[in-house]
């Protein structure tokens, strides 16, 4: 087997697929966060992370990333429309 056969290709995801995966992760974490067993674990005095993070912080981070992607999509569309208008003015 040569190196080309052993190399794995990186997945190519569309923006829609990325958003879908992020939303799925967010919902899964919210489901875990709402679990009585997890609430008990997180409430333990022994529960500790190096940065004092909680599961809610991960949910918040995913929400912010999702919003940032939507912002990029919006501004890309707006800029594309502006460029189309500018191109039509110069022709």
Notes on the structure:
The structure is a single chain. The protein is mostly helical. The protein has 4 helices and no strands. The protein has helices spanning 3-6, 15-34, 36-43, 55-90. The chain is elongated, with a radius of gyration of 21 Å. The model has no long low-confidence stretch (mean pLDDT 86).
Instruction: Kindly report the average pLDDT value.
Output: 86
Oligomer: single chain
Q: Summarize the helix and strand pattern as letters.
A: HHHH
The biggest sheet, with number of strands, parallel, antiparallel or mixed sense and barrel status, is: none
Relative strand content:
under 5%
Number of helices: 4
How far apart are the termini? Answer: 55 Å
Helix content: over 70%
Question: Strand tally, please?
Answer: 0
The shape, in one word, is elongated
* Rounded radius of gyration (Å): 21 Å
What are the low-pLDDT stretches, counting only 5+ consecutive residues below 50? none
Counting helices, strands and paired strands, the structural category is: mainly alpha
In short:
By secondary structure, this protein is mainly α.
Please supply descriptive tags for the structure shown above:
mainly alpha, elongated, 91 residues
What order do the helices and strands come in, and which of them pair?
Blueprint: H1 3-6, H2 15-34, H3 36-43, H4 55-90
Helix pairs in contact: 2-4
